[in-house]
Amino acid sequence: MTKTADGQSIAVRLLGDLIRLDTSNPPGNEEIAVQFMEAMLAREGIGSQVFMPAPRRANILARLKGKKAGRPVVLLGHLDVVPAHDEGWVEPPFSGAVRDGFIYGRGAIDMKSQLVCHLLAFIDLYRSGLTPERDIIFLATADEETSGTLGVEHVLHKVDDLPRASFVLSEGGFITEGGGLTHARVSVGEKQICWFMMRATGAGGHGSMPHRDSANDKIVRAAHRIIEEKRPLRPTPIVTRYMNGLFKGKKIAGMTFSSLREALKDKRFRAFVESDPSLNSLLTNSVALTMLRAGDKVNVIPPESVAYFDARILPNVDHGAFLNKVRKSAGPEVEVSLVNETHSVPSSYSTPYFRSIARAVRSVAGPIPVLPFMTTGATDLRHFRSLGIPAYGLFPMALPDEEHLRMHGVNERLSIESLEQGLKATGEIVRFLASYAPPG
């Protein structure tokens, strides 16, 4: 199951087809992608269930029955993507066009490519005639890019054995050259969302007569204090294991790295981390000003101004304590309130699942380090980890840093080579998951 009649890779064709189905969230419209997958599964003789918590917001689940009921293995992915506009793209964002060895389009990285690989590996397992030890579930969901309420959360309440899954595989890690060393990041945890808004009120007026009670001025002053605040570097167990595995014995910033704890005592290493946004976010409570709302006309001073911040806090940080510090930094001129929060429970990486994933990665990438990792963004895996289910994020394909930065941005794309690599390794992982009988 590798080539179409015209010689094109089936994975490439399917990814292009999925990208052309615009599932931007908002508004969502995942139903069109669900119908596409439902038809494909039906052609193979595989039944599926569709769950629709709201009009056009759909989720699809297919199951291969195992030798023993209960505690299924879940191949999880989301169908929605963040919005995209044509401006700046070399190919339209919903074209799925192939250009210079890359598939272009919104969702090429996040995460329709991995969904394609999950689906093809699932179908290959069905075609093989092998009966897995436990049920294998293919689950494609809605609403990951906002809250997950209409996606994973909804399906967890509708499928009895899903909250008792034995293992879940989804997004969050890949093969990278980050830190100057080719290695695989397997996400076993993630930072917590602590989005907040800042609101200020003041006297309105004509722009030609500025005064000292401007809502905008209050927001600017408070936002500046929050953005410029220096936040300490704080090691956590997962990040300590990751950085020790990545840097140990190497020359970093003019010093020989022995351990993260020791390195953080050296101002050269601290400066190195603080200059790298990805490493810095692994060790700090990050705060990004993302939206500003005020005023309708250039010559009118508005009576109200609002700013929104995307804060991602470390797993061991309390949301309330963090917001109290924000309020103290912001000062009395503004009101700070919580917009959204998530909580983080990490998965153990001392498991047969982690070891099998490492073998699969090395089968396509050679003898590289395979390291536990903490995702700085949020994924649907948090819903399973909170239930105590081992849940890992990995799409086992090479994704250079410059390509990773395109995710959610202009000219998001994935190389055909990386897609084929991901398909091969995903197939190996799924075959292991089918053959492994977890205790209990």
Explain the overall architecture.
A hairpin with a 6-residue loop joins strand 8 and strand 9. The chain has 14 helices and 20 strands. The chain is globular, with a radius of gyration of 23 Å. It starts with 9 loop residues before the first helix and ends in a 5-residue tail after the last helix. Strands 1-2-6-3-7-19 form a six-stranded mixed beta sheet, sandwiched between helices. 33% of the residues lie in helices and 25% in strands. It folds into two domains: 272 residues, Aminopeptidase, CATH 3.40.630.10; 151 residues, Alpha-Beta Plaits (2-Layer Sandwich). With 440 residues, the chain is α+β, with helices and mostly antiparallel strands. The model has no long low-confidence stretch (mean pLDDT 95).
Topology:
Layout (H helix, E strand, L loop, with lengths): L9 H10 L11 H13 L4 E7 L2 E8 L3 E11 L19 E2 L2 E3 L7 H17 L5 E8 L10 H7 L8 E4 L4 E2 L6 E8 L1 E10 L3 E2 L8 H14 L8 H11 L3 E2 L2 E2 L3 H4 L3 H8 L2 H7 L2 E9 L5 E2 L2 E10 L5 H12 L4 E7 L10 H14 L4 E6 L5 H5 L5 E3 L7 H4 L8 E3 H20 L5
Helix pairs in contact: 1-3, 3-14, 11-14
Which structural class do you get from the secondary structure elements? alpha+beta
Number of DSSP helices? 14
Q: Say what the CATH topology of the largest domain is.
A: Aminopeptidase
CATH class of the largest domain: Alpha Beta
The low-confidence runs, each spanning 5 or more residues with pLDDT under 50, are none
Number of domains: 2
Question: What's the Cα radius of gyration?
Answer: 23 Å
Reading side by side through the largest sheet, how are the strands ordered? Answer: 1-2-6-3-7-19
Number of strands: 20
Strand content: 15-25%
* CATH architecture assignment of the largest domain: 3-Layer(aba) Sandwich
Helix content: 25-40%
| N-end to C-end Cα span | 35 Å
- Described by the principal axes of the CA atoms, the overall outline is globular
Q: Write out the CATH superfamily name of the largest domain.
A: Zn peptidases
